[in-house]
Fold:
Amino acid sequence: MSTETAEYWRQRWLDGKTGWDRGTVSPALRHWLESGFMPPGRILVPGCGNGYEVDALAAAGFRVTALDIVPEPLEALRDRLAHRGLQAEVVQDDVFTYQPATPFDAVYEQTCLCAFRPEARPAYAAQLARWLRPGGTLFALFAQTPWRNGPPFHSSPEQMRELFGADQWLWPDQADLTVPHEAGFHELGYRLARR
Ligand SMILES: C[S@@+](CC[C@H](N)C(=O)[O-])C[C@H]1O[C@@H](n2cnc3c(N)ncnc32)[C@H](O)[C@@H]1O
Structure:
């Protein structure tokens, strides 16, 4: 089954095959929040899953939109937000077709891009570009995996620089940080500015 279908992801959630799920906020988001590189604004978290980062961003004063195609993790997220007295827009939709009424100031991309086969990346990258206002920031965690197949699919810096071309994106010289994942891979955290 293709990793671009809702059925594939729903089945993984129902089977509990969610090895990507840290059970807590990623150290990458903590780093960016603490470093002052993330001024509060409107932010989208695509493919948010359980969305621990959504809580953290809402608590830090962001206006957050959380997006996923599977209903179950979104229900858990809504319950948690309500329990903690936090506000966020929680949307069940497809990242390949979702269009907000207004572009966002920032997007936090964690383990969504690498969930899709490389053939699907250009369509997803085009959506990321559409979602951001000019000057907006893409906080991206690119999965570095030892595997030939996925998900997660290896997303080398060279591949990412080609996918997020210099005509639309301003790249930093180097990644802000490296984040290990207990599932056996690591992520490189980059901040890309939308031209
Ligand atoms: C590898 S998981 C990452 C979840 C979360 N970002 C994290 O790091 O824990 C990928 C997530 O993307 C969601 N997803 C997959 N395809 C999607 C699509 N086409 N539109 C929206 N969400 C999708 C899945 O349901 C899953 O929650």
